[in-house]
Amino acid sequence: MDVSHAYHSFLFLLLLFCIGGEAAITIEVSPASNSTQVTCYFIKDKTSEIVHLYSMNLAKSNNNNTFDNIAKISLLSKPQSLLNTDDSFQVDGLVDGAGTNYLQLISTSFTLKSAKIFQCAISGFDESENFLKETETVETSAVTPSVSGILEKHNQLSIRLNKLEKRESEFESEMYNLHKENQKRVETLIESELRSSLTGFMSELTAQLDQKISDLKEYCHPEKTDQPVELNLNATELVTFLYGFSYKRSRYYLSQADVTKVATAETDCAQYGGYNVEINSLDEYNVIVSTLKLKAKFSGTIIGLTDEGNEGDWYYPSSKKQATILLWNAGEANYDTIENCAVLWQPFNYKMVDIKCSDHYGYSFHFMCEIPFN
What we know:
Keywords: Coiled coil, Signal. Pfam families: Lectin_C. InterPro entries: C-type_lectin-like, C-type_lectin-like/link_sf, CTDL_fold. The protein has 374 residues and is α+β, with helices and mostly antiparallel strands. Helix content is 32%, strand content 29%. The chain has five helices and 19 strands. The longest helix has 74 residues. The chain is rod-shaped and about 150 Å long.
């Protein structure tokens, strides 16, 4: 809608307020000092059977007591076009089918002294789709402009304008209150959704923490029984270790890969806070051997035993303790200063065999780490 249509829409709304819905068709003549304005309005209400507006026509009387069409506007014309058959009039209008409907004539050559009757004709359809036509007329000779009349009309319009402004202010207040109410509802809804999401998240997090605590207890707390307990290895541990179990106050891990140097095994165990396994009792030895028989598919497993630095004096370098359990295979240990480390050897039913600490004749061995509980 352009500026002119917006302006007339405002006048139309003002007219609705002024006439109070008394008639469906209204035609007005507004005289001025240098022009005359004739305006036809159509308002959908109960006084008219027309429910679907089709067109609006403005006509003026002639000397033969009939009417000559001056202007017409139709709803079905897209874009709407104005038909003007009298160049002495300027034509403006709008039909939207929803309520803002007007057709207007403005003339600078026509005066009230040229007595004429103007006719506003409305065409359309009723609820049964029957074609109807309704008319309303106004006689310009009945319009007598006067200063007092104009002032009175101005006062009336001012009063009504004040009412409109008051209603506008009330409407703005209502809209503001509605906005605040809706904002509060949205905030309440968001808060409720957040609370629900947070509750679910906290419940899930609590369950995960409980599980982690349970796993940590299983991982860190020493078993007080004399029976080994299998450990659940995490993803990081599975990179290095094949199998793990706890026994008394230590955890034991069997390596995935084999190595050619005992020092390599020591380094891998140290990364997890441990060392090559120390065998300090016959029970511990039996538990280790039982595990190897079930899980090991290889011949030799490195243990922490060494006599490096003092030939024949076997000890564990991590704890600096002398070895008290030495279960050598027959003929072992047999290579004096050349072989200073030891393995549990599967072909000899996991008896101890001494080996070179590095590059044992091309052999490679798996190893077992021991990690004490703190």
